[in-house]
UniProtKB/TrEMBL annotation:
The keyword Membrane applies. The keyword Repeat applies. One of its GO terms (molecular function) is sulfotransferase activity. PANTHER family: SIALATE:O-SULFOTRANSFERASE 1 (PTHR45964:SF8), WSCD FAMILY MEMBER CG9164 (PTHR45964). Pfam families: Sulfotransfer_1 (PF00685), WSC (PF01822). Residues 93-185 form the WSC domain. Keywords: Membrane, Repeat, Transmembrane, Transmembrane helix. Belongs to the WSCD family. The chain crosses the membrane at residues 17-35. This is WSC domain-containing protein 1-like.
Length: 530
């Protein structure tokens, strides 16, 4: 009996010793892997610096995302600091009117659309629609918010709207192909405010043109605001004012009339007594917040592309805005070298797609290393005045995509350190893409703001696609989307010290010279130091 017991004891001692050695080996292997990963990252940084000996290095906080895609995908940027409509104290208390069908053949509401795949609530949707001047708010798939002034689909069974809102358990947010519709608080006529109204200009209807597209509204007199409200209520995307007569129409009508350079002709038609029937051929034309059905369609590329196109910019240069414009103009999703959860939650569905999948029309990146640049076959380089880029990125860091930094932030040491590191990155980023990109289109943020349509046509031609006129009109009408900081906040002091300005002005001259050396247009005049 003693002998078997001794053998068992001896075996357990050996097993314990074996487990101890295995544990030590496991820890040592893990340490080796960590050291190896660290050396790889160090080597990458050294080679990038060696490849660009004359360029300042980007801030350290943005070097790690270039290491591995798998690492980037597991890091979700926090969006808790973002100031959006969901944090408002005053909530809409609308009336739930029912569950309605919403699919490809029947669209319940025809206004704007807002996505939030994490925080959507019925109150957020109602607030958004109310502030955009709409009477109804509809929620679908638990995360999509639709606005409109008329419910144009059939009623569905109440139990079909069985999905909870992503940000509010127990609150109805539609279903699959089903929309929970609320009537929001009505505002008095003339008091509604719209985010996405666009004035197209004074247009002339040709003599041989038909007026069949026009729908005349009732009422003896109209102001532009009243006409826009009337056409929005009828779910029509165009409002036309001739004198005090209001007409509504669909988008195709705009392509049957001609824009007039003589603005005074519309002013003449606005007079009560028309001196000539010729005056009746002129209309002031506005886009209402109602989106044409074509403009709502966005999808991944039908066939995987064999070429990778970068949409590169320094942070704060307007990359998100340009992505919004490209998606609206082409109907295809854009992707990202990173993963920003807050942008995905706002409807950029390409944000989660692997950046080399070939399913997106272009890929956002802020990288500036030679290796990262040469992975792309071509690139759009979006540039912006460094003073404004720095302020925009600092606002984002302090208060999210749509917020503003406080005066305390601007006067802090954090701001001066930010300018020191990021201003040098502005110049190194531009010079690196000018040097290493295989095929490059340079776009200036300021030119895009001033001359949207021609700039977008140039960009889409570079992307080997074209813009249908209907989508171009939608892009003009909804150019800001939901990705622009509301209002403007002017500082009462200059956040840039003379020392900062001297350094940034020198960087501006360096980039301007590099552009001209490549036979490209230099920086816009407003960039240049005076």
């Amino acid at each position: 009996m003693a002998k078997p017991f001794y053998r068992l004891q001896h075996f357990l001692r050996r097993a314990q010793l074996l487990l101890f050695f295995l544990g030590v080996a496991y820890i040592m292997a893990g340490s080796v892997l960590l050291l190896q990963r660290s050396s790889v990252l160090t080597f990458q940084r050294e080679t990038d610096t060696a490849a660009l000996p004359s360029l300042p290095a980007p801030p350290r906080s943005l070097e790690l995302p270039a290491a591995r895609w798998l690492y980037r995908r597991n890091v979700i940027q926090k969006s808790s600091s973002e100031h959006n409509l969901s944090h408002k104290k005053d909530r809409q208390k609308g009336t739930y009117i029912g569950c309605f069908i919403n699919n490809e053949t029947e669209h319940a509401l025809g206004g704007t659309i807002l996505y939030d795949f994490r925080k959507m609530t019925s109150a957020l949707c109602q607030d958004t629609c109310s502030e955009s001047g709409f009477r109804y708010a509809g929620l679908e798939y638990g995360a999509e918010c639709h606005c409109g002034n008329r419910v144009c689909a059939r009623r569905a069974r109440g139990e079909d709207c069985n999905l909870d809102c992503r940000g509010e358990k127990g609150s109805r947010c539609g279903g699959v192909g089903r929309m929970s519709v609320y009537r929001v608080e009505d505002r008095l006529p003339g008091q509604r405010r719209y985010r996405t109204v666009h004035y197209h200009g004074c247009y002339k209807k040709p003599q041989n043109s038909t007026a069949d597209f026009l729908i005349q509204t009732s009422g003896p007199t109209h102001t532009p605001q009243q006409c826009i409200e009337t056409c929005t209520d009828q779910d029509l995307p165009l409002a036309l004012l001739r004198g005090q007569d209001c007409f509504c129409s669909h988008v195709p009508f705009l392509f049957t009339i001609q824009m007039s350079e003589q603005e005074y002709m519309c002013e003449r038609s606005n007079q009560t007594n028309h001196t000539s029937p010729y005056d009746l051929d002129y209309y002031w034309v506005y886009s209402t917040p109602v989106l044409d059905a074509t403009c709502k369609e966005r999808r991944f590329m039908p066939q995987k592309s064999s070429t990778l196109v970068a949409l590169s910019s320094f942070p704060g240069a307007g990359n998100t805005w340009l992505r919004h414009l490209i998606e609206l103009a082409t109907g295809f999703y854009t992707g990202s070298y990173y993963f920003d959860g807050s942008l995905y939650n706002k409807g950029f569905k390409g944000e989660k797609d692997y950046w080399q999948s070939g399913r997106v029309i272009c890929v956002k990146t802020h990288e500036s290393g030679q290796h990262e640049i040469e992975m792309f076959d071509s690139a759009i380089l979006l540039m912006r005045n460094p003073y404004r880029s720095l302020m925009a990125e600092f606002n984002r860091k302090c208060a999210g995509h749509l917020g503003y930094a406080s005066d305390v932030h601007w006067r802090s040491k954090e701001w001066s350190e930010f300018v020191d590191s990021y201003s040098s990155w502005w110049v190194s980023h531009a010079l690196a893409w000018l040097r290493f990109a295989h095929r490059l289109l340079v776009v200036h943020f300021e030119n895009l703001q001033e001359d949207l349509a021609p700039q977008l046509k140039t960009i889409t031609a570079f992307l080997n696609t074209s813009i249908p006129e209907e989508r171009l009109l939608c892009t003009k009408s909804n150019r800001d989307g939901h990705f622009k900081r509301s209002g403007s906040r002017s500082l009462t002091f200059d956040p840039f010290t003379p020392k900062m300005r001297a350094r940034i002005d020198e960087y501006i001259r360096t980039v301007d010279s590099a552009l001209r050396d490549r036979n490209l247009d230099g920086l816009p005049q407003e960039y240049m130091p005076r």
